[in-house]
Amino acid sequence: MTISQELAAITSVVDGTAASYLNDSTEVRGLHGHADAVVAPGSPEEVAAVLAWCYEHDVPLVARGGGTGYAGGAVPEGGVVLALERLSRVRAFDPLLWRMHVEAGVTTGDVRRLAREQGLMFPPDPGGAEQSQIGGNIATNAGGPHAFKYGVTGKWVTGLEAVVPPGEVITVGGATRKDVAGYDLRSLLIGSEGTLGIVTAAWLRLVPAPEAAWPVAAFYDNIAAGCRAIERVFGNGLEVAALEYLDGGTIDAAGASFPVGMPPRAGFLVIAEADGSAEEAARLRDEVVSVLGEGALAVSAPSTKEEVADLWRWRDGVTFAVTAQLGAKLSEDIAVPLDRIEEAMEETLGIGRRHGLPACSWGHVGDGNLHSTFLLAPDDPEQLARAARAADDLLAMALRFGGTVSGEHGLGLVRSGWLGRQWGPRAAALHTEIKRVFDPKGLLNPGKKVA
Ligand SMILES: Cc1cc2nc3c(=O)[nH]c(=O)nc-3n(C[C@H](O)[C@H](O)[C@H](O)COP(=O)(O)OP(=O)(O)OC[C@H]3O[C@@H](n4cnc5c(N)ncnc54)[C@H](O)[C@@H]3O)c2cc1C
């Protein structure tokens, strides 16, 4: 009997050759997976039964959310893919208590929409929200533009239901907003990229949505001028909700569709969003306009909700516009301390030049988080190999600057092996020991994160 046939007795089996379950957003850098079976359980108990079967038969298991990941975390190298899409129930929504209890397969976009309809906000806003799932966001501890003020996904999770080896459903935390009773297993599972357990449901914390949110976009000649403007936002104590940037190469790729026209020769763009009560947001926006205006080529401040939505929709599409330049790209998501961002942006371009690849960067600059990117022609193994070497230089630079090899996408497959280079030997060994405690057979997403 094949693995698919055996698992069919336990749960719902998807066509194992379905390519859509074998890749994620790393497909544009040439990563393709293969699996022996793809299953889509309909309950936590079925998830537990699949994991128990895998444990009994020594078969690896890869959890799969929306498949939007940028680290190859959901890309299988054989074994079973467990898709969470059928765990899509909202188990409870208590708007008056600012909380929601959802299954792992609910999309990020649906959580945010449901909250918004009741005047609330689930702040994490990763760009692939219509496809990514809350379980995937938790497994990667996803960020997004508004993480600058509101923090990353983990900050909004008060409890988790998860399936852990050899096949048991556990809950850590719950609807309680505070809990210091045990070791913080919730935080260990958050960001563990499917290597410690499979998240099946989560209790989420919400906040009242700000009454108003007004972004300001300011253009500069070059990286140096843009970085001075970013420093002034901090120096003037402006607590904006989002602080984003695009460098010149990114503007060249995405600028043509900027909603309100762009000054010629713009070499850097800063977007800062002021939010709060109507009065607070308007006051802060005026301050942001004034502070970003110094030394700017132009400042644009949308004044209607439609214009604001257009600006963020454009920002969400930047990654696709950059990919479209040559047909493929290799993007890293390093984060560095704020006093090193200018060097990191310049050195991204320098590394590209050294390896003969067009380079650019954009990202969540308030968090020091750069999406440093090398442009490629699709299916060119020689270029891909050069880009991989350029990426190694980039990750090494992040560590040299006291930063991290991943600010939000995780290590997955593409950055596996880097954990030991970022952390000291004992801290790296502790990671391996923790993995062994949760997953003694090493069957949960092998080769990822702690490999
Ligand atoms: C256009 C675009 C914009 C993006 N913008 C951002 C951004 O701003 N910020 C950001 O952080 N990321 C961003 N991303 C990356 C991606 O959306 C996030 O990493 C997201 O959290 C992945 O969720 P997913 O459901 O697609 O997970 P997948 O890609 O399916 O999986 C990601 C990892 O999580 C594991 N996993 C998935 N579900 C579970 C589960 N239920 N239990 C245990 N492990 C699980 C997988 O095994 C894998 O290791 C973007 C991606 C795209 C395509």
Low-confidence stretches: none
Mean pLDDT: 96
List ligands, each type once.
Answer: flavin-adenine dinucleotide
Tally of individual helices? 15
**Shape, per Cα inertia axes:** globular
Provide the spatial order of strands within the biggest beta sheet.
15-12-14-13-17-18-16
Beta-strand portion reads 15-25%
Helix % is 25-40%
The first-to-last residue Cα distance is 31 Å
Query: Whole-number radius of gyration?
Result: 22 Å
Biggest sheet architecture: 7 strands, antiparallel
Provide the structure class. alpha+beta
Oligomer: single chain
User: Could you give the count of β-strands?
Assistant: 18
How would you describe this protein?
The two termini are 31 Å apart. The model has no long low-confidence stretch (mean pLDDT 96). The longest helix is centred in the last third of the chain and has 20 residues, at 381-400. The strands form four sheets. A seven-stranded antiparallel β-sheet has the order 15-12-14-13-17-18-16. A five-stranded antiparallel β-sheet has the order 5-6-10-8-9. It has a four-stranded mixed β-sheet with strand order 1-2-4-3. With 451 residues, the chain is of the alpha+beta class. A hairpin with a 4-residue loop joins β5 and β6. The radius of gyration is 22 Å and the shape is globular. Helix content is 34%, strand content 21%. Residues 24-25, 62-70, 73-74, 84, 104, 126-128, 132-133, 135-137, 139-140, 142-144, 193-194, 198-199, 319, 408-409, 412, 445, 448 line the site of flavin-adenine dinucleotide.
